[in-house]
Amino acid sequence: MQNLIKRNSGPHRRSGMAKGMEGKTLAEKLAQSEKAREAAQSEMVPDPAPLPAPAAAAAADPVEDLPPRPAPAPDGDTDSIVAAAKVMRDRYAGRPAPAAAARTCLIVDDSRVIRKVSSKIAISLGYVAIEAENGEEALARCKKAMPDLVLTDWNMPEMDGIAFVTKLRAIPTPKEPIVVFCTSNGEAKDIHDGIAAGADDYIVKPFDEAALRAKLEKLGRG
Known about the structure:
The protein is α/β, with parallel strands linked by helices.
């Protein structure tokens, strides 16, 4: 400090600085000298060059190249998606899912044994078997859900096969089932009566899987 005072007040001070400090107090001279020194240092440090536009953008946002995040779905859409997923999960809760292309076969016979044997044959051919012990029960089942194939006996109590087939064909439906009489009546007149009632063909009891398969292939339902 003493040296600075000497330089500013003694014979060694520069003439330019002396002119700017004439008539000032020592404190004012010191403050002006400090400002001059800071100004000189700032002139020596150049301002940083501006970054190119891409570099400036990268410096401002380092994740610019990342793909944008999808906008969150509105609350209403999210709720509907969750609700739809829950419906799909609970769709078959407590019961097996139905087969998409299951074919059904209605077995109509007053004999329980014959119904069971016929059901096994139908199942082996890829059908879901449904049983009815007489024509009235069979007709009620057909009105509820029309089967793809009907195997019906001829002689039954309550309603025989001829009456059942006649009423079955009177039901308006876009899904006409194949009807096959399963009977021991093989006389020509019986066959004619069965076809006249609306049956597509007949098969003589007892029959096996091969005989029924051949009959269905003949009818285009193999």
